């Protein structure tokens, strides 16, 4: 993996050589070199190891995804801000099955750094809502769930959001439905 600055230097060097090829009337070489420089610019914004980890996660290969992410030694210097967000997002997805506290830390960091796509941000907030709900922080879970539903403009997470809302309603139980008295027995005594 090249450092992000090295990728830009390589792209600028290839682009400069492409201009030289245009000056020398080697138009075909110049065009190919410009396309090659665009690959390095693309890899500046989209880290190759994160892309490979996403491909592994699509196949439910958590070990393979972890192996690719472990190749990123120092994410703060090697990745741009949004890619650091995806780095933490992927780690959160992988550890969410085994360690909720660790997953919460990764998802919060991913949300604070930002993610490029609203769908991914909605998924991170949905996971955070599930973690908050499991830790009995219902107000935080409801807030995160409403934010996730606002971000899910295409309705890709609609079923999961609905299921989470139903689970939250079931967990509140019948005491919430009887007003300030708190229980059916207290309401009968008053009436």
Description of the molecule:
The chain crosses the membrane at residues 5-23, 29-57. Residues 166-191 are annotated as: Disordered. By secondary structure, this protein is mostly helical. Helices cover 76% and strands 0% of the residues. Helix 1 packs antiparallel against helix 2 (27-45), helix 4 runs antiparallel to helix 6 (81-95) and helix 9 packs antiparallel against helix 10.
* Tally of helical segments: 11
Subunit organisation of the chains = single chain
Structural class call reads mainly alpha
Give the beta-strand count: 0
Low-pLDDT segments: 175-191
Mean pLDDT across all residues, rounded?
82
Distance between the termini: 73 Å
State the order of secondary-structure elements, H for helix, E for strand.
HHHHHHHHHHH
Q: How big is the Rg?
A: 24 Å
Give the biggest sheet: none
Tell me the helix content.
over 70%
Can you tell me the overall shape?
elongated
Strand content: under 5%
Region (Disordered): 166-191
Organism: Aestuariibaculum marinum
Transmembrane segments: 5-23, 29-57
Protein name: DUF2892 domain-containing protein
